[in-house]
From TrEMBL:
Chain segments annotated as transmembrane: 21-41, 285-307, 334-361, 381-402
Pfam family, one: FtsX
Membrane-topology descriptor: Multi-pass membrane protein
Name of the protein described by the UniProt record: ABC transporter permease
Organism in which the protein naturally occurs: Spirosoma soli
Length: 415
């Protein structure tokens, strides 16, 4: 029976090319946008190079200090000392790395200025994150203890700074902000969307201008806590909050007296959303408003348009419906037939969308719009797209199918 419904759907598609074009155009365009969006979200939140341990990592990015009346607050990264005392000293994790998000610097090749994003890290950064070293190796605890002026650079910076890009640059000198560093390693760069690993140059935290010796709670550093196993994450969060809860309050820092201190230790997605939602009720309203609008534009409007197209297309088959009802076909059978037909058409549009998505993603990856972009149509993206196809087929098919299946036999035969 299912095969017969599919055959009928195929014949209907060939019968009216114009309706078929409009239907497939609407479906394929909508699903292409959804698949590209899903691919980007996977690129943003998924476990990818070099943050391949993101699924068992916790992120400490922001400290919030609030006064007793909760009318004023200070927010921002923490000091290296605070994270050393309260994060690195945790007993449960496998490792804890402390680093900056990124800073801006300049390097010069002749008269040409190269704008750089630089990052100060500890030695554990290279163990928590899994970079692909194209040349050399990362700096270690000995380099940090000795105060060596060494740096790990990306392949893109190597290409811009050195003339002979094919030759090894390990051991060579780079001058950044009038300070000379010895290149100790070259890595494949991280996409700019992964702020915990993105940079052009990586320095030990003991390098000049790192401000790692700043006292107090606030500073310019964040931490990534790597659990031995995913099941250890709640234990680590509890241990960290227990330590932070022992900080004596109220206290004063930089002239601001606060009595409430909040530092979150969260998985990546929760941490990302916290940065948005902690901005206050206005920012939350804007965020959820944008999400609702985008979903309505991507799913609601195309579904409404396709319902209208499907009603017009099915109305031409009123006589067929009348004949089938006259021979005893129940409403459920007719309803199921139209839904199957619509889902079949939707999957054809989905196949077209899959090809278009592949082309668009390949273009984005090669365009340079996002540095080191690695958007893919992986299993997760494909399964989400498949689910969207089903939902879209149901949304645009149930209403016209229900309407047509309830046609009066006499009226249907007159059509």
């Amino acid at each position: 029976m299912l095969l017969n419904y599919i055959k009928i759907a195929w014949k209907v598609l060939l019968r009216h090319p114009f309706y078929t074009f409009i239907t497939l155009f609407g479906i394929s365009l909508t699903l292409t946008v959804l698949m590209v969006l899903t691919s980007f979200l996977d690129h943003l939140f998924g476990t990818h190079y070099p943050e391949t341990n993101r699924d068992r990592s916790l992120y400490i990015q922001q400290m919030m200090q609030t006064d007793s009346s909760r009318s004023s607050r200070n927010m921002g990264p923490m000091s290296f000392r605070f994270l050393t005392d309260y994060a690195r000293s945790l007993k449960t994790p496998e490792r804890v790395t402390i680093c900056t998000i990124f800073n801006t610097s300049n390097a010069y090749v002749g008269s040409q200025k190269i704008k750089l994003n630089t990052k100060f890290t500890d030695a554990d950064f290279w163990q928590v994150m899994e970079f692909n070293f194209l040349e050399g190796k990362p700096y270690n605890e000995q380099n940090i203890t000795n105060g060596d002026n060494v740096a790990v650079i990306t392949d893109d910076f190597k290409r811009q700074y050195f003339e002979e890009t094919d030759a090894s640059v390990v051991g060579k000198d780079v001058e950044i902000e009038n300070i000379h560093y010895k290149v100790i390693g070259v890595v494949k760069g991280s996409p700019v969307t992964r702020i915990f690993t993105y940079a052009d140059v990586y320095f030990p935290y003991t390098a000049p201008k790192s401000n790692y010796q700043k006292s107090g709670l606030r500073g310019g550093y964040v931490a990534v806590v790597l659990a031995k196993e995913k099941k250890d994450i709640p234990t680590i969060q509890e241990e960290f909050q227990d330590r932070v809860g022992r900080i004596p309050l109220p206290t004063v820092q930089d002239g601001f007296k606060f009595s409430v201190l909040e530092v979150k230790c969260e998985p990546y997605v929760q941490n990302f959303l916290s940065q948005l939602l902690d901005g206050g009720p206005g920012l939350r309203a804007i965020f959820f408003g944008v999400i609702t609008f985008v979903l309505f534009m991507l799913l609601g409007l195309p579904a409404i348009n396709l319902v209208n197209v499907n009603v017009s297309r099915i109305m031409e088959r009123a006589s067929e419906i009348g004949v089938r009802k006259a021979f005893g076909a129940p409403i459920r059978t007719l309803l199921w037939q139209f839904i199957v037909e619509n889902i079949f058409i939707t999957f054809i549009g989905g196949a077209i969308a899959l090809v278009l998505t592949f082309v668009i993603i390949k273009f984005i990856n090669s365009s340079g719009w996002i540095a080191y972009a690695d958007l893919t149509i992986n299993v997760n993206v494909f399964l989400v797209s498949l689910l969207v196809c089903l939902v879209f087929g149901l949304l645009s098919g149930v209403a016209p199918a229900l309407r047509m299946s309830k046609l009066n036999i006499a009226e249907a035969l007159k059509s």
